[in-house]
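Worked problem 6 (solution included).
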Amino acid sequence: MEENKIFQRLKELIQNSSSKYYHYPVAAILECSDGKLYPGVNIETSSPQAGICAERCAIFSAIADGYQKKDFKRIFLLNQTENIITPCFICRQALSDYCDLDFEIISYNTLGESKTYYLKDLCQDAFGEDSLK
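Solution. The predicted structure is:
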């Protein structure tokens, strides 16, 4: 999907964020290799660990729908600040477990500016499946 349309969709999607406790809404759209898109928003609870970030919301939905590691192409992110964000470390762990190292993370700010990251750069020497052997 064209990135301008993705940005517009992220701006709509972020309205579905449930961020009444920490007031930090985030939206994500996971793109699979077949073009299927999975939306996600952060859902906060009064106990932070019981909530979920937008990135994991999107990827876990795709996994529940039958997609696997080889199917994930990239993820688009938006928060409601002028800062360009990266996934938190819990999301980085989930992404490193379920995505290839060349997985793209494209993050937007409210001005429409973006920066592209690669999982291999954000998760160098990540703990993963091989660490458990």
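Discussion: The chain has one domain: 3-126.
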